[in-house]
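Team,

Forwarding the record for the chain on the shared tracking sheet. I've put the sequence and predicted structure together so nobody has to dig through attachments.
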Amino acid sequence: MSEHSRPYAIHSNEECERLELQARLANIEGHLRYLPVSPRDRVLDAGCGSGAISRLIARTYPQADVIGVDLREQYLDFARTRARSENIQNLTFRAADVFDLSFPAATFDVVWTKYLLQWLKEPERALKELKRVTRSGGIIVSCDFAGFAVEHFPATHEFIQRARDVISALVDCDIGRKVAAMMISLGLRDVKVETETDRIFTVIGRIDAERRWNWEKQLQAARPHLIQIIGSEQGADQFVADFLRNYDDPATCSITTLHFTQGYVR
């Protein structure tokens, strides 16, 4: 982990399988409308995880050269195996730190990242590095949530405040609202934001089995961090129970917004 990053608190040996499920629940095929890829473009997926979106981009644009990067070799091994099983020829995966990418300047035409900046202490520093490896006229697209796991209705003020205090100690719950200003400060042009409902974490009424499993796995993996944040095992376990009980309630709605922020390199 880079000194500029938060701990990836939800890591487990099942994380790649969880990420694959999450990609399906998110309907990532719909994300492609935000990616203006042309034939023979070089495309970077920064923080690729299990490689689900990298594989989708490579399958959709078979003449493009797609590279996925992540810090964890375990995830990259999983991603490579999946790519081989799908016989994808125009995709490679590399270990890389998003703060210090091992690519020359102006390498890529399109740079994509999703659910990455929330884990960074210095997201603007990472965006600056993504800008460095993007050619003049190329585009950076960052997909980030806002209101992650903290907007629940109806719910008590105490529960909402507790959820925000705990979740925001793990990730930046509102990073999606901040990325456009970061891109402008870095000199990107034609910066714009499009929003839609986050299909994974928005739940209307009682949560379904797959989304509940997705939450359970993340909370189980994050338990050591929750104990540290809350101060006791009992307190952490009670928070998880209350949190899931909220999602199990058929009268409760939880809303998360997804922000697609894009900017062009001058």
